[in-house]
Design goal:
The chain is an alpha+beta fold. The strands form 13 sheets. The protein has a 9-stranded antiparallel sheet. Strands 3-2-5-10-7-8 form a 6-stranded antiparallel sheet, covered by helices on one side.
Length: 1020
């Protein structure tokens, strides 16, 4: 007989016996119900109902309640409730979270409640599936089941053996099939028509077939059935023979290797549902894991994200305390060390640091331990700065499975050393479960295939596998753990062990040196997430910038704002979750996210103003400015009125702008972290000047705008054009990915679509400070306005862009064919830069047709370079000398209206005469860190801090809760040397620390520094 036929025949034999596992099935009628938007348990219930009962979808969550009468329980029985209320449900017993009901968790084991007492069961119900799909809001079933434990275990073991036989090779496969066939051939159940008709409705092997015929038999209500004593004895006797033969096969064909299992549920903090639903998912999933921990002493559950534990603590404190107790017992692992499982491309290096700072601090405070494992199974690629952040956060191990999603090349390792930009090393681990990835099951196929896919068996015979339903939450099931007990030592399958992820790494005994991956971990998929939901990305960047500035200035306040700013940071970090910030969630998520990020910006600016007010000496004759950039800046700033300013007796140039403000320019630069004061002489109006030409010129550059809206830049000093032909070519592309609409950009997308042609061009400004030419476009329902801005004495052309977007499944890109020959381009990654090929010689290079960067990308040859600098764009393409920047990417799923509406951002072209990366970094800081302007005299030090040499970017300078100063620097140019820090107004000892600010090594300056290193200093 063919293997496949044998497999299905034997499974049908098992399913025929399954009805006899149900000794009793009792309908639970008459429930009490209440609806309304109630997050907490209701004080009372409005009416009694029985199923089927349809309720109002719009008034979810709803609640059902019933008092269970005392239940009798005998040895060898398990008692379950089987529910379907119309969607995902949290079940509370006697007011406490007990478990969950969803598509994969239909049965609830209540055997522990069979104690002779009445228990109140309540259900909080959302009419949604695990992935946010609407469910019909119908309470359709509620049953109490009494299960024969012995028969159930027998059939489960035989079924598992059949499934194992189906996946293994000969001769083990045939031997396992044979013992199953022998057992089932000698087991008899009653076959009289009356009994068979009663049991067949519980026979999953044939029920569907029978129900779908022209005139199906009429089934009476199934109330349970007992197997007669002689038949049950026969079943047990034959099973004893079966077990003995199975044990013999285990000795003949022992387990091969070990699969290290950990219970897990990947809960996307927002995705196809809003955050408020996530908080309900957390309670349901955690309650389920706690219930399983009580039933299975060997069970260990691992869950990341401090934010989720914080949510649980606030909404269900008793359940949180139970989790804390399981952590003490090493049966629950708070993993990851992060506030959420964050995106790792868009956040700055400081944001990534704060993910671990707040995450590890929370874990240590609440659980008495920090995580050693970074758990990011589903994140869309990983910045090269991450390894040193992990190391400084006390994390040694990094786990992802996402690189298995690569669409072109296999990532070559399952285990390796990941070496970061600064040389820091962490142990990288992945596992390839081809069935459900990180949402694994414990079944023969998953176990066998995951082990078979592990490619480095010469290094270790242990592979990691997480099990439990996820993405929408849910977690492991009782069936999975029952399967574990059967499969943990099985013929020719790997041995199974359940333990924490951290214990897996500690148990590894690697036989030789691991290979090293010394680069970013680029995901060859989901490249559109660098651009989707651009408005959210801009607001996120504004929130990062606002917190940066406020933390620095609030150092000088008598009030310590550290606690308030910490809470604002946590809001930002929560919205960095890898399905929020990348742009792959539903519309409702972004409505909330944009509101929250705007509130962060407003609140941070409020604290900033309060601090400035507290240190301001009112003087109408003085305007003060501060440079909070790490580099010298052009002294350019705006005021809302035109006044005559003098600096050291010299009048400052200014002009009125087209939007009614006034822009000022001082020829000399302002040094980093210093203030300047300008003397106000009198009111003086300077009117807007303009001419009709489409050209602009200053000391360095000559700029010509073409009739179609494109631009050419000529460097007068170098006598070189910036572009081969013309630059800033706007193209509208059709983008229809194969699978993940708001995630992906299609390879070859540049072959689609058309170039935009300007509908209107006019010069808006032409004065002593700057020239501005406006170009307008209309295409496919969207309007684009671009202002080319050329400042006096500058090599940078800014392109301020305002878009009213109403276009679907489209990608708007700007192209720049730069006049440079180079095989490498450099990209800002916030904590340094990475070089990527401009050619596409290899499949790896071809796959990188869209890559991420932060504030700049630069193409240089020895004598000349062109950089594209941005204030909030992250997606770029490079092919030979053609640079493209993705401006808007609007898909239709899961948010049909993705990016609909208004956008404003700036990108710039910076022309420089040498291969000077420091100049590029300085110019990007100039664009992204505007001067802070304040009326009156600010009674703060003229020099806030001075860093020598100027190879560092300050990512954070703040006051902590103890009133000590914390200064964080990143070496961004790839150099070594001696570091000197001067804060003359704050006389305290200086200590070197890690990013958690917990280690203190007293140092003396100057201090030896290394390339691309992050340094955190405490002044205490």
């Amino acid at each position: 007989m063919k293997k496949k036929q044998n497999f299905y025949r034997l499974l049908k034999n098992v399913s025929e016996i399954l009805p006899y596992t149900i000794l009793e099935q009792r309908s639970l009628n008459i429930w009490y119900f209440t609806n309304g938007p109630l997050e907490e348990r209701p004080a009372g219930y409005e009416k009694n109902v029985t199923f089927p009962f349809k309720w109002d979808f719009e008034k979810a969550p709803v609640w059902f309640m019933k008092d269970l009468e005392p239940i009798s329980h005998q040895e060898g029985q398990r008692i379950y409730l089987r529910f379907w209320f119309g969607g995902e449900s949290l079940i509370l017993v006697d007011g406490k979270p007990y478990g969950e009901i969803n598509e994969y968790h239909r049965l609830l084991n209540i055997t522990p409640l069979c104690d002779g007492k009445t228990h109140r069961v309540e259900a909080q119900v959302m009419p949604r599936g695990l992935f946010g799909k609407p469910q019909e809001p119908v309470f359709s079933e509620a049953f109490l089941l009494i299960i024969d434990e012995e028969i159930s275990e027998i059939l489960k073991t035989v079924e598992i053996t059949i499934r194992t036989a189906n996946i293994l090779e000969e001769p083990v496969s045939k031997k396992l099939f044979d013992i199953c066939d022998e057992f089932l051939s000698n087991v008899w159940v009653p076959r009289d028509t009356k009994t068979y008709l009663e049991t067949v409705q519980q026979d999953i092997g044939v029920k569907g077939d029978i129900e779908n015929i022209w005139n199906a038999p009429k089934f009476e209500e199934f109330t349970g059935i007992k197997l007669k004593k002689e038949f049950k004895e026969q079943l047990i006797n034959r099973y004893t023979i079966f077990k003995n033969k199975l044990e013999k096969l285990k000795k003949e064909h022992p387990p091969v290797g070990t699969v290290h299992l950990v219970g897990h549920s990947h809960i996307d903090y927002a995705w196809l549902w809003p955050v408020e639903e996530t908080k309900r998912k957390i309670a349901r999933t955690f309650a389920n894991a706690v219930m399983l921990s009580k039933m299975f002493p060997e069970f260990v559950f691992s869950q990341s994200s401090a934010q989720m534990y914080q949510d649980l603590k606030e909404k269900y404190p008793e359940l949180f305390e139970t989790v804390k107790e399981l952590v003490k017992q090493n049966r629950w692992e708070p993993a990851g060390g992060m506030w959420v499982e964050s995106d790792c491309n868009i956040p700055t290096v400081e944001s990534l640091i704060r993910q671990f700072y707040y995450g590890q601090k929370f874990f240590e405070k609440e659980f008495g331990r920090k995580s050693k494992v970074c758990w990011l199974p589903d994140v869309f690629g990983f910045s090269w700065v991450l390894p040193q952040i992990l190391k400084q956060a006390g994390i040694e191990y990094f786990v992802t499975t996402k690189l298995n999603w690569n669409d072109t090349n296999e990532f070559p390792y399952d285990l390796c050393i990941w070496r970061g930009i600064d040389g820091s090393k962490v142990l990288y681990c992945s596992f390839n479960n081809p069935n459900e990835g990180y949402n694994g099951k414990i079944d023969p196929d998953t176990i066998y295939e995951t082990w078979k896919n592990f490619r480095q068996k010469e290094l270790t015979d242990r592979v990691l596998l997480s099990f439990g339903y996820g993405d929408g939450g849910g977690g492991p099931t009782e069936e999975m753990l029952q399967n574990y007990r059967i499969l943990k030592e099985f013929p020719n399958l790997p041995k199974l062990e359940i333990q924490s992820v951290e214990r897996y790494f500690e148990s590894l005994e690697l036989q030789k040196n691991l290979p090293v991956w010394d680069n970013e971990l680029y995901l060859e998929c989901h490249r559109g997430t660098y651009t989707s939901q651009s408005r959210t990305k801009k607001l996120h960047k504004q929130a990062e910038d606002a917190l940066y500035a406020t933390e620095i200035i609030s150092i000088f306040s008598k009030r310590n704002y550290s606690k308030e700013l910490d809470e604002l940071w946590k809001i930002v970090l929560r919205n960095e979750f890898h399905d929020i910030l990348p742009g792959s969630a539903i519309k409702e998520v972004y409505e909330k996210t944009e509101k929250e990020l705007s509130q962060v910006v407003n609140k941070a600016e409020e604290f900033l103003r309060e601090t400035l007010d507290s240190v301001r000496k009112n003087d109408n004759n003085v305007i003060s400015i501060i440079n909070l950039s790490s580099f010298p800046k052009k002294t350019v700033f705006f005021l809302n009125k035109g006044i005559n300013l003098h600096f050291k007796g010299k009048e400052i140039d200014f002009q009125r702008t087209h939007d009614g403000r006034y822009i000022y320019l001082l020829d000399s630069e302002i040094e980093p972290f210093t203030k300047m004061e300008f003397e106000v002489k009198d009111q003086k109006s300077k009117f807007l000047e303009r001419d009709n030409s489409l050209s602009m010129e200053n000391e360095y550059l000559s700029v010509q705008i073409s009739d179609n809206g494109t631009v050419q830049i000529y460097d007068k000093e170098m006598e070189r054009f910036a572009f081969q032909g013309e630059g800033n070519i706007l193209k509208m592309h059709k983008n229809i990915p194969a699978y993940w609409d708001n995630w992906d950009i299609t390879d070859g997308v540049e072959k689609t679509g058309f170039s935009l042609k300007a509908s209107r061009i006019e010069k808006l400004e032409s004065g002593p400070v700057r020239e501005v030419v406006r170009v307008e476009y209309e295409a496919e329902g969207s309007k684009i306005i671009q202002d080319y801005i050329l400042m006096k004495n500058s090599r940078r052309l800014d392109i301020n862009t305002i878009i009213d977007w109403h276009t679907r499944r489209a990608l708007l890109k700007a192209y720049f064919p730069v006049n440079v020959l180079t095989r490498k381009a450099r990209f800002d990654i916030s904590g340094g830069f990475i070089e990527r090929s401009t050619h596409r010689n290899t499949n790896y290079e071809k796959a990188r047709f869209e890559v991420s960067a932060h504030r700049w990308v630069d193409l240089s040859q020895t004598d000349f370079g062109v950089a594209i600098i941005t204030d909030s764009k992250y997606g770029y393409g490079i092919k030979d000398n053609l640079v493209s920047i993705s401006l808007i990417k609007a898909g239709i799923f899961p948010d049909f209206f993705s990016d609909e509406g208004s956008h404003e951002f700036t990108y710039s072209v910076y022309v420089h005469p040498y291969d000077d990366i420091k100049a590029v970094v300085k110019e990007s800081e100039d664009l992204n860190k505007p001067i802070l302007v304040n009326p009156g005299i600010l009674e703060i030090p003229s020099q806030i801090v001075k860093i020598t040499p100027s190879n560092f970017k300050i990512t954070s300078f703040r006051k902590n809760e103890d009133g000590d100063l914390v200064l964080r620097l990143v070496e961004v140019l790839g150099t070594s040397g001696k570091l000197k820090i001067e804060i003359p107004w704050f006389k305290k000892d200086i200590f070197l620390s890690n990013i958690l600010e917990e280690q203190k090594q007293k140092i003396k300056l100057p201090f030896d520094f290394q390339p691309f290193k992050i340094y955190t200093f405490l002044f205490a």
